[in-house]
Structure to design on (386 residues):
């Protein structure tokens, strides 16, 4: 908002007179500084931040379908209190149809999964369920196909990874603004937090960054090496998104690979745990035991959920303690069975395994968590505040 005001002031001197007459500002700078309060958006909905966020992941299909009531009932009868709901999904679709007066309508990327977002949020308000909007950022097959120049190409075709997914280019400001516009609309609906996921380059990008074709945007003249240039682009996006969302009075969170906290930085994908953490209100490491190889001296992490999470928490606490203003830690925990690991490498996850992860966090001073199950089928009978 401040940038918009500055631009208006430069183009039209009458803004100065308006600001002086209406608000008593004597300089443009005063108007800009105050703008985030003057123009702060209010959705009309009221949510209180819980004692500690304890949430579940909810797809657009679940949020707009029969499973929504089941998930509300689960939260009603337990110490869970929050939902992370897909607003822009893993394909790049918006999970509702924007209104005709929305700037998002012209993008033609809306899907009718959530028929009435306002009604959904009113239900959450009534149930005192804290709403978090998940926005998948750079993994975006929809935008990549619509706008190949915003993606990575190989032989003239939009590049796809081994799972058939395409990414858009983190170097490009137009890609940033695309996602920030979606986040702003989610904030206007009443979501209290915007959670950005896939805030990174594709996995293994360091092996193909010289062969794929893509634009560098404002980073063309960067003197940084390729690793630091990627880190700079990803970190800059997070800082930019947070600044753009300030007038909407929402928290900003980022999902990040758990191993990023154990390394100076993840060289291929551009994630630096500390630098991202400095620019968010909440950091959510994905620390599913099944997603680690032999780590922390644990040969088969999926078989030892308590130990894996406890060892990770010690490392993260150490990293965050070095920051001047560390964000809230709210890791993603595993509530699914990783049978793809093969016999002897996984165990069936249920009440004991979920509670073990929560207990490991709590014993290391981390009270907040989110549960991931891709199908949104969560274990019954879990004590979420052990």
């Amino acid at each position: 908002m401040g940038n918009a005001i500055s631009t208006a002031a430069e183009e039209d001197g009458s803004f100065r007179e308006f600001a002086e007459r209406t608000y008593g500002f004597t300089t443009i700078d005063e108007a800009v500084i105050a703008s985030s309060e003057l123009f702060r958006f209010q959705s009309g909905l009221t949510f209180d931040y819980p004692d500690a966020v304890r949430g579940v992941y909810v797809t657009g299909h679940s949020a707009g379908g029969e499973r929504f009531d089941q998930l509300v009932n689960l939260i009603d009868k337990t110490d869970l209190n929050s939902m992370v709901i897909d607003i822009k999904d893993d394909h790049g679709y918006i999970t509702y149809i924007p209104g005709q007066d929305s700037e998002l309508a012209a993008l033609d990327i809306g899907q009718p999964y959530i028929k009435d977002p306002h009604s959904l949020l009113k239900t959450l308000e009534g149930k005192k369920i804290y709403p978090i909007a998940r926005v998948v950022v750079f993994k975006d097959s929809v935008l990549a196909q619509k706008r190949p120049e915003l993606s990575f190409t190989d032989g003239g075709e939009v590049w796809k990874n081994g799972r058939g997914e395409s990414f858009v280019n983190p170097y490009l400001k137009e890609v940033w603004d695309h996602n920030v516009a979606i986040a702003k609309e989610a904030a206007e609906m009443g979501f209290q937090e915007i959670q950005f996921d896939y805030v990174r380059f594709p996995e293994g990008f360091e092996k193909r960054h010289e062969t794929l074709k893509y634009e560098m945007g404002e980073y063309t003249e960067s003197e940084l090496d390729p690793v630091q240039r990627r880190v700079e682009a990803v970190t800059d996006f997070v800082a930019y998104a947070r600044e753009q969302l300030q007038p909407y009075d929402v928290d900003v969170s980022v999902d990040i690979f758990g191993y990023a906290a154990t390394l100076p930085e993840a060289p291929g994908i551009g994630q630096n745990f500390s630098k991202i953490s400095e620019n968010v209100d909440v950091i959510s490491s994905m620390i599913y035991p099944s997603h680690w190889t032999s780590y922390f001296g644990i040969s088969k992490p999926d078989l030892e959920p308590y130990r894996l999470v406890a060892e990770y928490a010690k490392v993260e606490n150490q990293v965050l303690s070095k920051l001047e203003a560390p964000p809230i830690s709210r890791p993603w925990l595993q509530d699914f069975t990783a049978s793809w690991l093969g016999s002897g490498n996984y165990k069936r996850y249920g009440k004991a395994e979920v509670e073990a992860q929560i207990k490991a966090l709590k014993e290391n001073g981390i009270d907040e968590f989110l549960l991931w199950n891709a199908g949104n089928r969560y274990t019954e009978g879990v004590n979420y505040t052990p």
Summary: The longest helix spans residues 226-245.
